[in-house]
Specification:
Layout: H1 6-30, H2 34-40, H3 45-49, H4 70-77, H5 92-105, E1 113-118, H6 121-129, E2 143-147, H7 152-165, E3 168-172, H8 178-184, E4 189-195, H9 207-216, E5 221-224, E6 242-246, E7 260-265, H10 275-279, H11 281-287, H12 289-293, H13 299-309, H14 312-332, E8 336-340, H15 350-356, E9 373-378, H16 381-391, E10 396-397, E11 407-409, H17 421-426, E12 433-437, H18 443-454
Parallel strand pairs: 2-3, 2-4, 4-5, 5-6, 10-11
Antiparallel strand pairs: 1-7, 6-7, 8-9, 9-12, 11-12
Helix pairs in contact: 1-4, 2-5, 5-13, 14-18, 16-18
The structure holds pyridoxal-5'-phosphate.
Residues 120-122, 125, 151, 153-154, 195, 199, 224, 226-227, 246, 248, 258, 260 line the site of pyridoxal-5'-phosphate.
Length: 457
């Protein structure tokens, strides 16, 4: 600070006061319930008064921030005071959303939590993992250990890391099998990655046990928690270092937004990278790799997401109840070979799901919720599955999920089509698998559509 002029130092001091106020507001909101946080985030009365009194977070569409003078600019561009500078780096509307996401993901967690928004879920998977692959002469032979039960885009991204960067990719075929994780993680592992529940297999993971294995080898444990959302599961509470979401899904349920987020606790575990990266990974990627690569979210998309996010808990409650009813119906239909849903007692990961997933701020039977996503195998193979899929009359055929409207897809020919033949086997995909994202329609109408589609099998 000594090398800055007195006037620059005055701006730095102003910035310190802004951060102190934000920190006070964060502490205050941490004492509120999940729904209250989802509705208000950090946008309080003082924020409203600074924005023409607007009770709703405004959309700031301007590309750049005007500065008082060169001293103000110097302090801001040196990241020595809160500022948004230029909309590729950040923006006030994105900041409101980031603060809400950090508070929701950190709900019940005793420590600092920070969020960084990206222009898509895949950009979040990329930025949430890429920094761990930096060159480090002390660790010349990097490997990554990841659950093969993951979204097709993540599967192909990690395959790209292996093909283009000489990183050894070690897939865990059965993410419930701790001996498989233990056998694959070693001192050269740069990061350990899991998706829970997984798209489309709904596979689950013993988060605490895998986090312990990763940490013992000096590697961070990164969880893609898109399908659960913090309304059902908060992996930071169980030892995860980073949580990634495709915000495009049920967080922005209306279907107008593609977005992603990387959320970090402070002092993550990593054997590579600067201290600044370990201290606050989300801020680090905002200030450096994201700034330089530029996969930025549009402020209007952030505003639409802020709006949908307010009802996350109650929507999750309804869609989880409907999904359970639909899963039970499918399980009783003779045209269905098997149903994958974490809330079904016969599901292989049921006990693990019960340990980690529950509706936030609920208790007893009201807390037993397992999300809106399920998948089922149609008896009669690929042709029969395609027939059932083609007969759907209300449930949309689309590569999408987390919507207010029910949507179905056949992963083998859509979300996971780009995975090569032998890798499809590693990922555990079957051609007769239909993935169903249950929306907010009445369960009777969803079941009626499925019943008529399955009736010819
Ligand atoms: C679990 C999961 N992670 C990441 C992604 C990628 O997100 P986006 O489509 O927002 O890039 C998806 C998309 O389907 C997903 O299901």
């Amino acid at each position: 600070m000594d090398s800055y002029s007195l006037s620059v130092q005055a701006y730095i001091e102003q910035g310190r006061q802004i951060m102190e106020r934000d920190q006070k507001q964060r502490s205050l909101m941490r004492g509120k319930k999940f729904d209250t946080i989802a509705v208000h985030g950090l946008y309080d009365m003082q924020s409203a008064l600074a924005n023409q009194g607007s009770i709703i977070e405004p959309a700031f569409l301007s590309t750049a921030q005007h500065f008082d003078n060169s001293d103000h600019m110097e302090a801001a561009l040196a990241y020595l005071m809160p500022a948004w500078i230029y909309a590729r780096v950040t923006n006030p509307t994105l900041h409101y959303l980031e603060e809400t996401l950090a508070l929701l993901e950190g709900y019940g967690f005793d420590g600092e939590v920070t969020a960084h928004l990206t222009g898509s879920g895949m950009a979040a998977v990329f930025l949430g993992t890429n920094s761990f692959l930096m060159n480090d002469p002390a660790h010349p032979k990097p490997n990554i250990v990841a659950s093969a039960r993951c979204y097709g885009g993540t599967f192909t991204l990690f395959t790209r890391y292996a093909n283009e960067r000489g990183v050894e990719l070690r897939w865990v075929r059965d993410p419930l099998d701790l001996t498989e994780w233990a056998a694959k993680i070693d001192d050269e592992t740069r990061f350990v990655f899991g998706e829970m529940p997984a798209n489309p297999s709904l596979a689950v993971i013993d988060i605490k046990a895998v986090a312990d294995l990763a940490h013992a080898a000096g590697a961070p444990f990164i969880i893609d928690s898109t399908i659960a959302t913090p309304a059902l599961m908060r992996p930071l509470l169980h030892g995860a270092d980073l949580v990634i979401h495709s915000v495009s899904k049920s967080m922005a349920t209306s279907g107008f937004v593609i977005a992603g987020v990387v959320i970090s606790r402070s002092n993550i575990i990593s054997k590579v990278g600067p201290d600044e990266m370990r201290l606050n990974y989300a801020n680090y990627i905002k200030g450096y790799p994201h700034r330089d690569m530029g996969p930025t979210l549009n402020p209007l998309s952030a505003l639409l997401t802020i709006n949908d996010l307010r009802t996350l808990r109650s929507r999750t409650d309804i869609s989880s109840r409907t999904a359970m009813t639909v899963a039970q119906y499918l399980g009783s239909n003779p045209a269905v070979e098997s149903v994958q849903y974490p809330g079904l007692p016969g599901f292989p990961g049921y006990e693990t799901a019960v340990r980690y997933m529950e509706l936030v701020d609920a208790s007893g039977s009201e807390a037993a919720r397992f999300g809106y996503l399920l998948s089922f195998n149609v008896r009669g193979g690929a042709a029969a599955a395609r027939q059932v899929f083609d007969r759907l009359q209300m449930i949309f055929r689309a590569t999408d999920l987390g919507r207010v409207k029910s949507v179905a897809t056949i992963p083998m020919i859509s979300t996971h089509q780009q995975i090569s033949g032998s890798d499809k086997d590693i990922a555990g995909l079957q051609p007769n698998l239909i993935r169903l994202s249950v929306g907010l329609e009445h369960p009777d109408d969803i079941i009626a559509d499925l019943a008529q589609a399955l009736s010819l099998v």
